[in-house]
Design brief:
Blueprint: H1 6-54, H2 59-92, H3 97-114, H4 122-149
Helix pairs in contact: 1-2, 2-3, 3-4
Length: 150
C-alpha cells in the first residue's frame, strides 16, 4: 500500500469536515422542518376539525378529510425516515438501502391515498400498484437477505 502525500491527507481531512458540516446542517434543517410540520398539522387539525366535521354532508366529504389527515401524517413519517437516513449516513458514512426503500413505500402510499379515485385514469392505479409491488418486494428481499447474512 502506498503512503498518501501530506497534501492529499490534508485535502481529505478538509473534505471530511465539509461533508460532516453539510450533513449536520441538513439534519438540523430537517429537524426544524419536521417540528414546523407537526405543529402545523396539529394547528390544522385543531382549527379545521370542528368546522369540517360539523359540515360533512356525505361519505365523499368524510373521505376527503381522512385522505388529507392521513396524507399529512404520512408526509411526517417520510421526513422521519429521511432523518434516520441522514443520521445513519452521519454515523456510518453509508446510506442504508432499506431506509430509502421504506421512504419510497411510504411516499408512494401517501400518493395513492391522495389520489382522486373518481378522476384518475385506471392505468395510473395499475402503474402505482406495480411500483408498490416492486418496492415492497425489494424491501422484503433485502430484509430476507440480511437475515441470511447474519
Amino acid at each position: 500500500m502506498t503512503e498518501q502525500s501530506p497534501v492529499l491527507k490534508k485535502s481529505l481531512r478538509v473534505l471530511d469536515v465539509i461533508e460532516r458540516t453539510i450533513v449536520v446542517t441538513m439534519i438540523a434543517l430537517l429537524i426544524a422542518v419536521l417540528v414546523v410540520a407537526v405543529v402545523e398539522l396539529w394547528r390544522l387539525f385543531a382549527t379545521g376539525a370542528g368546522s369540517k366535521l360539523g359540515g360533512v354532508a356525505s361519505s365523499a366529504d368524510f373521505q376527503d378529510i381522512l385522505q388529507n389527515a392521513f396524507g399529512g401524517v404520512l408526509v411526517i413519517f417520510v421526513g422521519l425516515e429521511l432523518l434516520e437516513t441522514m443520521r445513519a449516513y452521519f454515523s456510518d458514512h453509508h446510506v442504508r438501502v432499506e431506509v430509502i426503500l421504506f421512504v419510497a413505500i411510504i411516499a408512494t402510499g401517501r400518493h395513492i391515498i391522495g389520489l382522486d379515485v373518481h378522476h384518475t385514469e385506471p392505468m395510473v392505479f395499475v402503474g402505482l400498484a406495480a411500483l408498490m409491488l416492486a418496492l415492497s418486494g425489494s424491501y422484503f428481499l433485502l430484509k430476507k437477505s440480511a437475515k441470511f447474512s447474519h
